[in-house]
Amino acid sequence: MSFSSLQTKLKAGVMSIALAVTTFSSLAAHPNLVITEDDVVKMRGALDSKGFFSERYHSLKAQVDQEIVFPIVVPVPKDGGGGYTHERHKKNYQLMYRAGIIYQLSQEQKYAAYVRDMLLEYAALYPSLDVHPKRKVKSQNPGKLFWQSLNEAMWLVYTIQAYDLIHDTLTDQQSATIENQLLRPVALFLSEGQPTTFNKVHNHGTWATAGVGMAGYVMNEPEWVEKALYDLDKSGEGGFLKQLDMLFSPQGYYNEGPYYQRFALLPFVTFAQAIAHNEPERKIAEHRDGVLLKAIDTTIQLSYNGLFFPINDAIKSKGIDTIELVHGVTVAYSLTNDTGYLDIAKQQGQIILSGDGLKVAQALDKGLATPYAFKSVAFGDGSNGKEGALVIMRSQLDGDQALLFKPAAQGLGHGHFDKLTWQFYDKGEEIVSDYGAARFLNVEAKFGGRYLPENNSYAKQTVAHNTVVVDETSHFNGDVEVGNKNAPTLNFFETSEYGTVSSGEISTAYKSVELERTLALVNLKELNSTVALDLFSVAADKAHQLDLPLHYKGQLIDTNFKLKANTKQLSALGDRNGYQHLWLKATAKPEQGLARVSWLNDNGRFYTLTSLVKGDEAFLFTQLGADDPNFNLRNEHSFIRRLSDTKQHQFISVLEPHGEYNPSKEYTLVAQSRVTNLKHSQQGELVFVELEIADKLYLIAINKAELASKKSFKYQNKSYSLNGRLGVYLINNI
């Protein structure tokens, strides 16, 4: 069906039920979504007392006052993401929502009048609009006000709340105009007009169902609510509840990763609150054993130093202060009274003007916040929690360290081809890094603010991550559909006094190639320090080229082997699958023994990766930026361990944080690695690593048996006991 035919059908549908709309809408209590009548009474009572809630109210009121003195501007849509009209419509729905809240609390008519007038302007404009002129040519989900219907759904989520907040100030004629010429056409366009998106189990579908379902509550359209919950056919094959069932694991991990988890959180939380307020008998907070509350908590856990772990398509500057998680934390505290959430709310520095927000503000006023507990945890992936896992290892032994290990599922279209990759964080900074997404969000000058071409040609490719690449080809040959059908296996995860250890494997990333990785964040208590141990095994039925990149943040300081640098002319490392974007800066071939690469991070600390090599590996030092005519990529650094012709290999290395560099006070401490020896051996399912560091000799034992239990073993004629997966033993002081 053409869009013009669709418009005709939708207009006919609107006219046929126009008379019923006014009658039914008059029966609803307003406001009745996130904020209720009871909430308003309590919030008004808190405005005269000093505290966080009152401060937030007066601050927001001052902001709204500054905006509403200007003429209302509702422009004809013209620009893509980040352009003037896009940003104007985005600002408009946010301003209507805020002005609606200020009206309810202040009872000053000017705020309701402002929202009313803007809604009437939109009601005059919307019927004249065709699909957006900057829509993606191949996209099946264009908007009208925005270039994609996702933004249209976001507009509806906010705007329907604004309408709900000022509804009772409107005449019947004004309500009829706004509903029949604006809100109803938008809701129908996002649902019946785009059934594939509306029924899709995806964050776009979440926003659409939330907007339409909330409109159903406000406008007394129970059929809309049912369709939003169970899909257009009410079959349960799609819709909001199906998304709760399919997009989250039982632990509350969202399949697309932390960045999109926080993005989808707001429609999930907002619509859930509307359901709870209008139909408490649905017990939405209890759905799937409280999966939504788990999702809020998991979103917090998926962060380090206030920023989300940037796996998959992620903008690296997004963190726990994002408005979606502010709403989430507000709801989580209201449901649980867990004072750890108040710690996060304090860090967010924002208060939501709602009934739940009032509870948070009053608790903060009383000083009830307690430290939020960040944990080492393995979040099962997939709706059943059995499609691999995203693993977080943490240590407070020597600062604040985190290791992220990803034997996780593909993550749909926003997923990257990075099975078994890892990242490392220390003292507030990213040390072993992930590129995240190649995108300048809402910067129209950079490809309209959309994902850049380099997102596909580099950021998603396996070589952009810290995992094995076979024959310069990405996992699953770069096919998302294949990737979605083949998840890694989490072999085990355990945390104890010795640290945290986890293992994962996958045999479908490449044909007839098995990849297995074991990572451990190991506590060396005698040294009051932590090291990251990496054991990566590759087994294939024929010889391949194997590359293992490590992308690092900082300045290269030293290697214990000679580099052959390309100082006059650079060439790209390859011609496809991300290699075409890597300048080859230098090469080396370390002799058998230990190969060390050290760098200095902006946090003033040194890091050394010490690898056990046999003399058959090449080290390739690269810089990002080749084949990038528009300078879209950041000039980041990596080094790649390469074996040219092998069937089996085990990459063994240890990452050691050490020393300090203070240019302000002009001192440097322990700039050289303290690792002097590294050995590896195995007895059945027991793996042993000898680590000689800072004049101490440690034995690190890992039990890979299917059922890890207490084991006694001998190592170099000495008896040891291993209770669990990981053991760390100080053999002697050297």
TrEMBL record:
<protein>
    <submittedName>
        <fullName>Alginate lyase family protein</fullName>
    </submittedName>
</protein>
<feature type="domain" description="Alginate lyase">
    <location>
        <begin position="74"/>
        <end position="301"/>
    </location>
</feature>
<keyword id="KW-0456">Lyase</keyword>
<dbReference type="InterPro" id="IPR008929">
    <property type="entry name" value="Chondroitin_lyas"/>
</dbReference>
<keyword id="KW-0732">Signal</keyword>
<dbReference type="Pfam" id="PF05426">
    <property type="entry name" value="Alginate_lyase"/>
</dbReference>
<keyword id="KW-0574">Periplasm</keyword>
<feature type="signal peptide">
    <location>
        <begin position="1"/>
        <end position="28"/>
    </location>
</feature>
<feature type="domain" description="Heparinase II/III-like C-terminal">
    <location>
        <begin position="383"/>
        <end position="599"/>
    </location>
</feature>
<dbReference type="InterPro" id="IPR008397">
    <property type="entry name" value="Alginate_lyase_dom"/>
</dbReference>
<dbReference type="GO" id="GO:0016829">
    <property type="term" value="F:lyase activity"/>
</dbReference>
<dbReference type="Pfam" id="PF07940">
    <property type="entry name" value="Hepar_II_III_C"/>
</dbReference>
<dbReference type="InterPro" id="IPR012480">
    <property type="entry name" value="Hepar_II_III_C"/>
</dbReference>
